[in-house]
Design brief:
Layout: H1 5-12, E1 14-15, H2 19-23, E2 26-31, E3 35-36, E4 42-49, E5 64-70, E6 73-77, E7 80-82, E8 87-92, E9 98-114, E10 117-120, E11 131-145, E12 160-164, E13 176-183, E14 186-187, E15 191-196, E16 205-206, E17 208-211, E18 217-221, E19 226-236, E20 245-256
Parallel strand pairs: 3-11, 11-20
Antiparallel strand pairs: 1-16, 2-4, 4-8, 5-6, 5-9, 7-8, 9-10, 9-11, 12-13, 13-14, 13-18, 15-17, 15-19, 19-20
Length: 257
């Protein structure tokens, strides 16, 4: 397990310098409140950002799908484009006490490198394109409903998913939160980045860097109260041959007291 918080990350953050990571926005959910009453709606925004968590663009509406996770099933939630805030806004409600889970799927998009830069489309569609990536993004957010927290570790079935192994509402500043990375439902080793809302205005910069163990579990040190974002990514070759590389990204947001 590796972390830089003690010496470097607290002072400077962890900056993503890989071109692929720096070029794309992260999809993240920002709930309007840490808690909600049973049956009462809690607003949320779907953000596409380099600075966490401030949205910088509206993705194609058809490619952004939101759900609430109820009794083991994903129930669609309507989204409305917020042209001023550059977010897709929705409202989630939950019928029983526990951890309410909001999930978002940014559907796959293929982007290719052309002589004029990165453009949306396949190499066949873009003459002169030399490399193509297929990007698919996932996000989850946790809200404490009715004073409860049961279900914080529920698996919703995202292709790349971050699952807390301890109740985030019970974690205190200075403690570690164990988070498991699942790829197609199975634990996978990965790099995990984390930050809190307002940490910095510098793009692609995180407060914490770590790596999972062989069982796919990362320890994220909580250093500040407020809204936290945890992020991971894996790369591979798409089975359908639609692009040269597949990039999956996933974020998890939750509140710390």
């Amino acid at each position: 397990m590796i972390n830089l918080t003690k010496q470097v990350a607290c002072a400077l953050g962890v900056v993503l310098i890989l071109a692929g990571a720096a070029a794309a926005h992260e999809t993240a959910i920002k709930p309007g409140a840490a808690t909600a009453a049973v049956g009462k709606g809690v607003p949320f925004g779907v953000h596409s950002a380099h600075v966490f968590i401030e949205s910088e663009e509206l993705e194609a509406a058809a490619d952004v799908k939101a759900f609430v996770f109820v009794d083991g099933k994903a129930v669609p939630v309507a989204l409305t484009a917020n042209d001023k805030g550059l977010t897709y806004d929705g409202e989630a409600s939950f019928g029983k006490a526990g951890t309410g889970i909001i999930a978002v799927h940014r559907l796959p998009q293929i982007w290719s490198l052309t002589p004029e830069g990165m453009k949306k489309g396949t190499k066949k569609e873009l003459p002169g394109a030399t490399k193509s990536n297929r990007y698919e993004k996932f996000a989850k957010a946790l809200v404490a409903v009715g004073g409860g927290s049961a279900g914080f570790d529920a698996v919703v079935g995202q292709r790349l998913e971050l699952v807390p192994l301890a109740d985030p509402t019970a974690v205190k500043v200075g403690q570690d939160l164990d988070v498991k990375v699942l790829y197609d439902g199975k634990p996978t080793p990965a790099t995990v980045l984390a930050t809190y809302d307002g940490f910095t205005k510098t793009p692609n910069t995180y407060a914490y860097y770590t790596e999972t163990d062989d069982a796919g579990v990362a320890k994220v040190r909580i250093t500040h109260p407020g809204l936290w974002l945890v992020r991971t990514e894996i790369k591979g070759v798409p089975a359908d041959g639609s692009a040269d590389q597949e990039v999956l990204r996933s974020t998890l947001t939750f509140f710390v007291q």
